[in-house]
Write a structure and sequence with these properties.
Elements (H helix, E strand, L loop, with lengths): L33 H9 L3 H9 L3 H4 L4 E6 L6 E6 L5 E4 L5 E4 L4 E4 L10 H4 L2 H7 L9 E11 L2 E10 L11 E6 L5 E6 L13 E11 L2 E13 L2 E17 L15 E3 L3
Antiparallel strand pairs: 1-2, 1-12, 2-3, 3-4, 4-5, 5-13, 6-7, 7-8, 8-9, 9-10, 10-11, 11-12
Amino acid sequence: MYIAINKTTTLALGIWVSLLVASCETKKRPSSSDESITARIQQMPPALQEGLKAHGGLEEWVKYGTLTYTVASKNIPEDHLIDLNSRKVLITTDSTFTMGFDGQDVWVSPNLAAYPGSSATFYHNLVFYFFSLPFVVADPGVNYTALQDITFDGVAYSRISISFSDNVGESPDDQYILWFRKSDHLLSMINYSVTYFDAVNAGKFNAMVYDEWQTVNGLKVPKKWTSYKWENDSLGDKRGATLITDVSFQEGAPDAALFQKPETAEIDKGN
């Protein structure tokens, strides 16, 4: 497959989650008031507005306070619990490790060594961010630029460039390009850069393709995505795939105590 984009350098990072790499932002979602949602949507390029509508609507997304799902593609499946308002996170496994974000610190139990990846801070909301596109780019502090439409393999796409304001999330220099299929406005692919480990990588892109979708509570969310190297303006070698099952949305917020650091857990200091 050949896809034309100006920035095409490959970023090689050996990070868990099916070798999928990206740096994810911890931001508050927009207010659930009708006025706030309408004002936010009006600031977006038309392609993003149509994409949000195709995925069930931002108005529907902000109704929910609790999200749970299972990352079933891992050797050790993970159950993720997210407070959609505070963006607190709890990740549990069989007994290998438990990871949490209490709103201030990322912690791992029984200790940091139990997590097999390179950085708990980098990973704690990684899957959530990819799962929650395009809705999470409606968060405050996100900037949009409409790019030129492109057609390849006979399919037309609209593209939106995403960047972040200063001091937004762990890695505000990250960049994303969202590809929406013009025929149905669904998100088909993203390009992304990762600056959490090194800011020089801001212009280096990888790719991720959304292979399957599932509809839960009226929201069209990913069931499977595949990550690739990005080489010579095209999809390169496959890095891995992520499968999401048992998705549930609840209107109420989860119990805040669930995210509190256990006494014996260790805090990850990040970079």
